[in-house]
Design brief:
membrane; glycoprotein; 851 residues; Rossmann fold; alpha/beta; Helix Hairpins
């Protein structure tokens, strides 16, 4: 059996729902017919004859046709007039009770198959088209029972995708008519491309869509827009293309099968044509699997060239965006008096999309010098502008006009994604989130993330000079002075050679501690001297240690940082009163979102994040922000510029700054190669020295090594101590004067009392003396009675021992006790500087004692 018979059997059984189960029921039930008429609406005698022969052959193949079933053909000629065709179908086919209709189409018209489909569909008779390829027949709402053995024209979009993938074209422009077929091929291309590119890396995107009306005579305006696009791959064909040099070298045209039949098809156009598309007989054969094969060497491209075009037009004038970020981009606003920027600056206007105002600025810096070098190296011109919203860009949810929510990029990244810019020359960090939507060059600077904080300043208190020793050590030193002094006193006290006093021991210890030498009051005992030498050594060590630590605390040591890095417990612990932040929507912000172990820290710092890095750095300087987490390049620059700022810990989250480009941009390779060449030539290193370090880092290093100059704040406590000593001395002298006056008054009262006592004692002595004198006088008188009246001998000293020598002259000689009285008077005069004024001169009239 021929392949035609097999194909017809498959289609017939499918269309009239005849299978083995129905046939068995048909034999058991006489209601089912045994004769089936198959109608044919064909375009020529040859097709009609071949169709009739095929039907007759099927009746003898019981493999497909059960016994007792017979097929008969009923054919008519298709007419160019669809109305006549419909009438013929009703008259010659439907009246014959056909079960299915096979229809071809007139080469010069496509409406007749539609008439057959409408007519047969009304009677629910299946129609099989063997050459109709219009997209309209795929609409099952209209052509309910229409089937076909050939693909519609819009299925060529599937082959286009294969060809684009084969030639590695990434951008295309689709030109289509506004009719059903034109819109169908566009929809098919867009729908199929979404699933087709899931498994491959290279994705072709539609850069522009041009829809034209069939009656439009000129497409000039459309072609002007197409020339401005980057893509040079065009799908379909347009009549006026050649007028604007769109069919010359470098362009690629892929057209539909219908366009290949046009008279003005330019050379080098690629097209698809269905195999045996005009041979109805071959389309009634068993299907064959065909595979697309392309021999690139045999293709002659537009312009008569053999080399495959790049498929894109590389623009030489680019729109470049940047953002203010010192030291990479410095932005200065033009004043009213200035007409243009300076020689080392580039004009960079800022267009505010909110209020529609355009402000004029001038930009310079690291990235601006890099942009100039790139433009010179790879030969392009540019227009520079600032980021419209002043942000690098982050992926956020936005409400659309259709009341749906979708994610969109903002800032610089959004301008690239939505093709409103060609290039981003800024400190743009390379990360996975951004690389999914835009292209990056090789990094022009490698960096990481670090922490900026202000150096903790050591507070200068009034007791700064006490900082070298702890409070405990000061107490121990003071106690040691008095303890050793007490031991020295005891050693010298109990030593047989000692003569030490407690006050002398205190003075000796204090002299040794103050390194003022040992005075004269040194201990004399050997044991005390040994202890004194040990104490002198102790005092020398204490004083030397104090001096060294004082220099370390007040002069040499400079506090570095309070944080050890990102792993510092104070950053991870949300209970600590330490604020840290970064910039909203930045690469650092995305890094913290990705890191699970930093989630707690990110939740804490998210509320403190800033809009710009400039604000955060200023708050660090003002101590409003404890730690600012940002790119190391910027923070190293800030630390080099201001020696009071310092970066804490090691770098983390290492990455690099790259040039941002559109996805599949033709400039990607050229920019990358230029940057690699800049690294090798040392150009990037020169930019680092000029803009980032700027010579200030050496000044900071010198500043770190230079000792601090001690000021009044550092040594104020010492001066206050001296002042306190002076005030204390004045206070003590006042106390001494008051005490001395009080002591003088007390001594005066004591002296008066003593004088009164002496007077009383003198009176008592006088009375005793008088009594003794009277007694001796009596005894003497008694003795005179037994001796001559003339005194011629000395009184016996042994008889009167208390009586001194008998005076030779004066009244004292007239009585035996006169010498003792005279002696007492002389002693008193020597002590008092003369005879007391308050005691009368004592004389004794002893003339009456002489007989």
């Amino acid at each position: 059996m021929s392949s035609l018979e097999k194909l017809l059997i498959i289609y017939f059984f499918f269309c009239i729902l005849v299978n083995n189960v129905l046939l068995e029921k048909m034999h058991s039930n006489s209601e089912y017919p045994t004769v089936y008429n198959i109608g044919g609406v064909l375009s020529g005698n040859e097709s009609e004859t071949y169709f009739a022969t095929t039907i007759s052959h099927l009746n003898f193949n019981q493999e497909y046709v059960p016994k007792g079933i017979t097929y008969y053909d009923k054919t008519i000629r298709i007419d160019k007039n669809p109305i006549k065709t419909a009438l013929n179908v009703c008259k010659h086919l439907i009246s014959k009770r056909v079960f299915a209709v096979v229809v071809s189409h007139e080469p010069s018209g496509d409406l007749s198959p539609a008439a057959v489909s409408y007519t047969s569909g009304f009677y629910q008779i299946p129609v099989i088209g063997i050459s109709s390829r219009d997209a309209a027949f795929s609409d099952k709402n209209i052509h309910v029972s229409f089937l076909r053995t050939v693909p519609p024209y819009y299925h060529q979009a599937d082959v286009w995708l294969e060809m684009l993938n084969h030639f590695a074209y990434t951008k295309v422009i689709i030109i289509h008519s506004s009719d059903t077929d034109g819109r169908a091929i566009l929809g098919r291309f867009q729908t199929t491309s979404q699933t087709y590119y899931d498994d491959i890396d290279v994705r072709a995107t539609v850069e522009d869509i041009v829809e034209f009306e069939p009656k439009l005579e000129s497409f000039s305006q459309h072609f002007y827009d197409m020339k401005a696009a980057q893509s040079r791959v065009y799908l379909l064909y347009a009549k006026d293309a050649k007028l604007h040099n769109l069919t010359g070298p470098g362009h690629v045209w892929i057209v539909t099968e219908q366009a290949l039949n046009a008279n003005n098809v330019p050379p080098g156009v690629l097209g698809l044509e269905l195999h045996y598309s005009n041979n109805e007989r071959e389309h009634i054969r068993e299907k064959q699997k065909m595979r697309l094969k392309i021999n690139d060497s045999l293709i002659v491209w537009p312009g008569g060239i053999r080399k495959k075009p790049e498929g894109i037009m590389i623009p030489t004038h680019l729109k470049v965006l940047t953002i203010e970020e010192k030291p990479f981009v410095y932005v200065r606003k033009l004043t009213d008096d200035e007409a243009e920027c300076e020689d080392d600056e580039i004009p960079c206007p800022h267009y505010n999309s909110t209020d529609g105002v355009e402000n004029y600025f001038c930009c310079k810096g690291y990235c601006m010098d890099l942009l100039k070098a790139l433009a010179t190296r790879i030969n392009f011109t540019y227009d520079l502008a600032l980021s419209p919203d002043g942000q690098f860009g982050h992926y956020i949810l936005k409400n659309t006009s259709t009341l749906s929510v979708k994610k969109e990029w903002t800032g610089l990244i959004g301008e690239l994604v939505y093709e409103r810019a060609d290039l981003i020359v800024a400190p743009l960090t390379i990360n996975p989130e951004r690389a999914e939507f835009i292209e990056f060059s090789k990094p022009f600077k490698y960096q990481g993330i670090t922490i900026l904080e202000k150096k903790p300043s050591r507070s200068s208190t009034l007791v700064s000079f006490l900082q070298p020793f702890s409070n405990t050590l000061w107490i121990l030193v003071m106690v040691s002075v008095h303890v050793v002094a007490l031991v020295l006193y005891l050693l010298d006290r109990f030593s047989p050679f000692g003569r030490y006093k407690l006050t002398n021991s205190d003075g000796t210890e204090e002299d040794a501690l103050n390194l003022s030498g040992i005075g004269e009051g040194t201990p004399r005992s050997f044991s005390a001297r040994v202890l004194g030498m040990v104490w002198a050594g102790f005092a020398m060590i204490i004083v030397a240690s104090y001096t060294a630590n004082l220099a370390a605390f007040l002069v040499l040591e400079r506090p570095k940082t309070k944080l050890s890095g990102i792993n510092d417990a104070r950053l991870r612990n949300t209970m600590e009163n330490l604020t840290c932040a970064t910039v909203k929507g930045s690469a650092v912000d995305m890094y913290f979102r990705r890191q699970v172990e930093l989630s707690n820290m990110y939740r804490t710092m998210e509320a403190n994040n800033y809009d710009t890095a400039e604000q955060a750095v200023q708050d660090v300087k003002d101590r409003k922000l404890m730690a600012f987490i940002w790119d190391s390049s910027r923070l190293e620059y800030e630390a080099a510029k201001d020696c009071e700022l310092v970066t804490a810990g090691e770098l983390f989250g290492r990455s690099g700054y790259g040039i941002g480009l559109q996805k599949n941009s033709p400039w990607t390779d050229a920019v990358t190669l230029a940057i690699l060449d800049f690294h090798e030539s040392g150009f990037m290193e020169s930019l680092d020295k000029e803009w980032i370090f700027h010579g200030n880092i050496q000044q900071c290093e010198q500043f770190e090594k230079t000792p601090n100059t001690l000021g009044l704040k550092n040594m104020a406590g010492v001066f206050i101590l001296v002042g306190a000593g002076i005030i204390g001395g004045i206070g003590l002298i006042i106390i001494e004067v008051v005490y001395k006056k009080h002591q003088i008054k007390k001594n005066k009262r004591l002296e008066i009392a003593r004088h009164a006592a002496d007077k009383w004692r003198g009176t008592i002595e006088k009375r005793k003396t008088l009594r003794a004198s009277l007694a001796m006088q009596r005894q003497y008188n008694v003795g005179l009675n037994s001796v001559p009246k003339t005194i011629s001998s000395v009184v016996d000293r042994n008889r009167y021992p208390r009586l001194g020598p008998i005076p030779r002259t004066g009244p004292e000689r007239a009585w035996p006790g006169g010498t003792e009285i005279a002696k007492n008077r002389k002693n008193e005069e020597s002590l008092k500087g003369g005879p007391p004024k308050y005691l009368p001169a004592y004389t004794t009239d002893v003339s009456h004692l002489v007989v």
